[in-house]
Amino acid sequence: MQFRSAKEKINPVEFEGPVPWRRIAVYLKPALIPVRTTIIFMVVVTTISSLIALIPPYIGKQLFDKGISTGNNENIIKYGLFSILLILIAATLRYLSKISYAKVNNRFSLGLQNRLLTRLVNLPLDFFDNKQSGYLAGRVNEADAVAGLFSPTLFQFISSIFQGIIAIVISMNISSKVTLIMLPFLLLLAIIIVWINGVLRRTTYDLMETSASTQGALQEIIFGINDIKNYDIQNRKLSDTLRQYKNVAEKRIKQTMYLSAGTESLTFITSAFSVILMMMIGTYIAKGQLTLGDYIALSGYSIMILTPAQMLGGVVAIFQPILISLRRLLFFFESKTESEICGNRKVVKINGEINFKEVTFGYEDNKPVLNKCNLTICQGECVAILGKNGSGKSTILKLTLGLYQKYSGVILIDQIDIRDLNTMSLREKIGIVSQNVFLFHGSLLDNLKLASPNASIEAIERAVTLSGCKTLFDDYNHVQIEEFGSNLSGGQRQAASVARCILKDPDLLMFDEATAHLDNETRRVVLSAIKSVFKERTRIIITHDKEVASIADRVYLLEEGGIKELNHMEEGWVEEDNIIRY
Predict the structure, then answer these.
(1) Which of 76, 136, 168, 507 could serve as 429's disulfide partner, Cβ 3.0–4.6 Å?
(2) What's 93-153 look like in SS3?
(3) Is the distance from CB of 298 to CB of 182 less than 8 angstroms?
């Protein structure tokens, strides 16, 4: 059977063609439900505000025609006070709208990011293999842009369309000739806005992708600063990263140039329209066909008629990044999580029997790390797996943990196919000590209790003693750990990882070069724990160390994708300075 690579690329979402609203709605809905009442309130407030905005031009017409033109002070005061009242109501509604927007924006964004991060951490390991952590972080942060769906600008644009239609009807009643002259200007505005929309669609996606890649490069510099300084390559890495920043800056400048040309064209057309409108109405007033009040009303309503077209440019500028972000988020939401891939059978206890049957697996296409591998580990057995770097030793542990599902053959735990098991419950019963220890910023005690948050003081004391932490830390209760454990030695980090594993009290234990950074005394303490404290549990040890391999009940050698059992005195591997050479 041909193996399946774990690094099969997920097909990118297509960014051309209609927006896949149905697919997008599926993952937006849970974040929308908690804020739907506030959204309805925003719609009602915006609608009322739009209707109220239609009144002032008419009041202005009455103020001039029935007040100022006739010298009627009573009408001047009446219409003037009514205008002030409308201004106060409009200001109150705008305030309520902004408060509602802030609530919807933040709560929706929080809900969406919560779902996104929850899904991200539950994606299978092969999803992360070929992607920079900074790049993924940049993609996740794009969720903030989606909150713009509830921007006041968008709601105002929708209401302006409704408002513009009513304004056309009222303007036609005042002067149909003046109203009809507005239509060519609307057509010109629409053509320019369609062009702006196309430019934004092309440039925004490119800019987002470049920005995410640049963030990945920056994060690599921060995480790898120690090696960068050791190899004196800071100038080279800095130059590469600054080149990417320059690329981002150039793309932003180019986008701004196009947008500025479009928006300034819109401004020119609307300004020219205002002048032409004033000239036309002035001519009609001079002929006695319109009044000064009609001019005030038509000027106000003409603004309302053109407003949707004017706002459309801004809405496009806001909405294009939102649409692109929505499409890009499908990348996360439509990638299958581990729970969607693996089985549903919950693991209550692991007895410890493990079988690999004809297992073939590779991280890249046509490059198998394991090739028809057969391995049997009995319940309660301690097994050491040897092999050159890259031979697949750690891969066996990863497959046993259910971190990769794309392999051929069968992996059984207690005679149950691992594909039928719920992998999260499986890992709850497995403890692993890796050669690459990750410690979180905070106290040592908090890091240890990650394995068992409710652990008793006695259990913690036992784990600290058996791991050798007690000899490596003066007072483990008050040790503070900096980011990635950078203030600890390699031995201290490894001892903390061993303590965390012991505190978890797992049914199955895995040690991947777990003693590589320990001094002799601490190593003997850890080996004693592996050999005696957990003697009734299945233990898998990955090592190059003769002393560590010697405590195993059986020893296997991995080479060229296959595995075979060794005798300690078998030819094919020799011991030099306590290190196994192949």
Answers:
(1) 507
(2) HHHHHHHHHHHHHHHHHHHHHHHHHHHHHCCCHHHHCCCCHHHHHHHHHCHHHHHHHHCHH
(3) no
Q: What is the mean pLDDT of residues 394-401?
A: 91
Q: Domain 21-339 classified CATH 1.20.1560.10?
A: yes
At residue 571, the 3 state secondary structure works out as coil
Using an 8 Å Cβ cutoff, are 274 and 178 in contact? no
Which residues on adjacent β-strands are paired with residue 416? 413
Burial call 382-417: b when 16+ CB within 10 Å, e when fewer: bbbbbbeeebbbbbbbbbbbbbbbbbbbebebbebe
Tens of pLDDT along 205-220? 777 777 777 777 777 7
Residues of the chain with CATH 3.40.50.300: 354-581
pLDDT at 569 over 50: no
Token pair 């990750």 is found at 438
Computed on alpha carbons and rounded to an integer, the radius of gyration of the chain in Å comes to 35
Token pair, residue 77, equals 């005061």
**pLDDT band at residue 577, thresholds of 50, 70 and 90?**
very low
pTM check: above 0.85: no
Would you place residue 144 in the very low, low, confident or very high pLDDT band (cuts 50, 70, 90)?
A: confident
Dist CA 368 CA 560 (whole Å) = 9
Q: Token pair of 235, please?
A: 């100038």
d(CA 430, CA 507): 6
% of the chain surpassing 90 pLDDT: 11
User: 354-581, which class in CATH?
Assistant: alpha beta
**Residues forming CATH 1.20.1560.10 domain(s) in the chain:** 21-339
By the 10 Å C-beta count (0-12 exposed, 13-18 middle, 19+ buried), 288 is classed as exposed
Tokens representing 116 are: 């996104």
